Amino acid sequence: MALKIYNTLTRQKETFEPWQEGQVKMYVCGPTVYDSAHIGHAMSYLIFDVLRRYLEFRGYRVQYVQNFTDIDDKIIQRADKLGVSSEEVAERYRREFLADMVLLNVKEATHYPQATTEIPTIIEMIQGLIERGHAYPADGNVYFRVNTFENYGELSRRSTDEMRAGAAVEASEHKENSLDFALWKAAKPGEPSWPSPWGAGRPGWHIECSAMIYHHLGLQIDIHGGGTDLIFPHHENEIAQSEAFTERHPFVKYWVHNGLLQLGEQKMSKSLGNLITIRDFLRIHDADTLRMFVLSSNYRKPLTYTEEAVEAAERGLERMRVALRPPRADAASADAAWLTEQAERTHQAFIAAMDDDFNTAQAIAQLFDLVTAINRARDEGVTGVPFEAAQATLRELAGVLGLQLQVEDRRNGMEVAPFIDLLVEVRSDLRAAKQWALADKIRKQLAELGVVLEDSPTGTSWRMA
Fold it and tell me: What burial class does residue 307 get, using C-beta atoms within 10 Å of its C-beta: 0-12 exposed, 13-18 middle, 19+ buried?
């Protein structure tokens, strides 16, 4: 079965065929670094991390570029409020974001370009657009001529009249057309600026991504990712300026957009103040919990954050972790052919689900079928190579989704599973010796620590409450 990806440009699933066989060039819009990242940001980067991991699992060599917008009105305003430079604000939150991604087990990008380090390429592109008649300088600013690009509005499926009516178009007496957008902004007193052929200033938001793609990935790329809120105007403008400059169509083969995370009826947003930072989430939950919560839904759909949904993700993770516990110590030889067959079916079904536009919810459902089989096999006394191979399949496929499945004591980061296993074994020995008081004491104290013991005719298992 071939991998199919939903392309926002065509509004349909398409067979994935990169420009160069075996190679994938992928660009994802990164954060504007003026404040701590929240779990709405994390949702997008977790989704594209999984896309990348799966492409690599399927044998592709992926070049993954993600930018930082490190000069912007919001950064300047935050710097003024704090009484520090824009560079200090941007660098502080850039480093914090990268640390957050490590905590979330997001793979490091091939390149992390920053707007302020791409000024030469940005100026080169703007000059080229002016020479081709697609842009014009005006009083230190430079604007893109929207009416020179015939496919403008194709990505967002909007007409120019709809754009004027529905978009917050930046007004300027220097524009030839109200829809024209800034490629270069003239310097304002006290704001950071760079020299250019049109005077001191700084780049517009849209041009930085086009310049970074051109510089680090070339004239055409395979996948461009970002949230649905970026389709218009940001990605629409990227298409216009990039294709006008490079004279290559399409400059992106597959546009991939994730739905947004909501609290109640509103998307999670810094400007609205209805957010949970990544750090705040990780003080209470582990990284796998957020990943499981996000991946249990279709990546293109909006996702509503609730504590109930997070708790469901935690319960699912605990089921997976239990399946990775060792076989029973007293296990005897048992038929294991069915377990091997289930592991093979899970492997095939997982790939089929992910090949269908990265259907992570269905892929996770396949993993739970294997989890059920492994736990049944433990109860039936299966051990040895078949049991270990089934667990290895679970680890491998969970790893494709970026799940680590580690049991940790959140107070100090120590892995507690081996100690709990030891206490369960000691309690079993005490029960066998009919030392009921001591056995009950272990159960009670483990319960106080959030560990639930479950006795059955085949032995004792445990889970986190």
Answer: exposed
- To the nearest 10 degrees (0 to 180), the angle between helices 236-246 and 119-131 is 70
Query: 66 and 27 in contact (C-beta within 8 Å)?
Result: yes
Q: In this structure, what DSSP letter does residue 277 have? A: B
* Torsion sign (Cα): 190, 192, 198, 203: negative
pTM (2 d.p.): 0.86
Chain segment 111-121, per-residue pLDDT in tens = 999 999 999 99
Query: How many residues does the structure list for the chain?
Result: 465
Q: Residue 159: left if φ>0, alpha if ψ -120 to 50, beta else—which one? A: beta
What residues form DSSP beta bridges with 23? Answer: 20, 61
DSSP tag of 356: B
Please state, in angstroms and rounded to a whole number, the distance separating the CA atoms of residues 98 and 70: 14
- SS3 of 413, please? coil
Q: Which CA distances in Å does 24 have to 1, 4, 364, 384, 405? A: 19, 14, 25, 39, 28
pLDDT reported for residue 409: 45
Token pair 């690009």 is found at 149
